[in-house]
Specification:
With 257 residues, this protein is α+β, with helices and mostly antiparallel strands. The protein has a single domain, classed as Sandwich (Jelly Rolls). Helices cover 21% and strands 21% of the residues. It contains 5 helices and 11 strands, in the order H-E-H-H-E-H-H-E-E-E-E-E-E-E-E-E. The longest helix is centred in the N-terminal third of the chain and has 21 residues. The protein starts with 6 loop residues before the first helix and ends in a 15-residue tail after the last strand. 41% of the residues are buried. Bound molecules: 2-oxoglutaric acid. The site of 2-oxoglutaric acid has 9 residues, from strand 9 and strand 10.
Amino acid sequence: MANRLTPQQQEFYRENGYLVVEGVLSREEALAYRDEMHALAERLRAQRTVNATWPSIRAKNPNVHIDHCHDVQFHSAMVSRLIVDERFTGLAEGILGPNVQLHHTKMFIKPPAKGAPFPMHQDYPYFPHEKHTMMAAIFYFDDCPIEKGCFRVIPGSHKLGPLEHQSPADHYLPEDKYRLEDALPLPGKAGDVIFFNYLTIHGSGQNESSEARTTLLVQMRDPTDCPTVQTHESRGQGMMLAGIDPNARIRPVWEKE
Ligand SMILES: O=C(O)CCC(=O)C(=O)O
């Protein structure tokens, strides 16, 4: 059965640019997803290691690492089922409206002790859109206390609009102005989901715990919100997770005829 946001949760998202929804998945389900993600990381590692640590972080500490996979639903039917699960999409509808369109998905596993941080940034510069409906959901597949490098936000920062970022390589914000330590930590339990707008300033710390931090990020938009730059095109982009694409384009704008 579909989960729905309350008017208070919708108002919280509008005001703060993020929302935590606890217990979207049961603990058992979340841990099964954790196992699925770790098995995927093993398979990928057998071919080549994909380290999603940002260049600006690597420059400071070459030993940190994040296992990464893009468009995870192409590797796991469990993930395909999850991104259209009404317990999840019903919540996304409460923010985006009845039509929820996929942009991309990402698996991140921050290994114990050396799981790399993400510097503070907005996602906007990676895939700017006209109406700024773009948002992400992060599933915690294991418990995520602060020391695991939990997700952090600056509440209300989406209202600042698009900001100038430092580097064309990885688009981080000035570290003296936007310090990770000053951002609000969002520790959580396996099965919790955090929604946040692509203008909300966010980041996360290093995993200093003895356990991996395992997450899935699902990036979504209202299908009437078009990209202003043809960039960050990926497999599966444009798939409808809820509702319909009212544009009724034969091919989406980012695909060439
Ligand atoms: O998973 C995290 O801790 C942050 C991920 C992130 O900031 C991003 O992918 O833009």
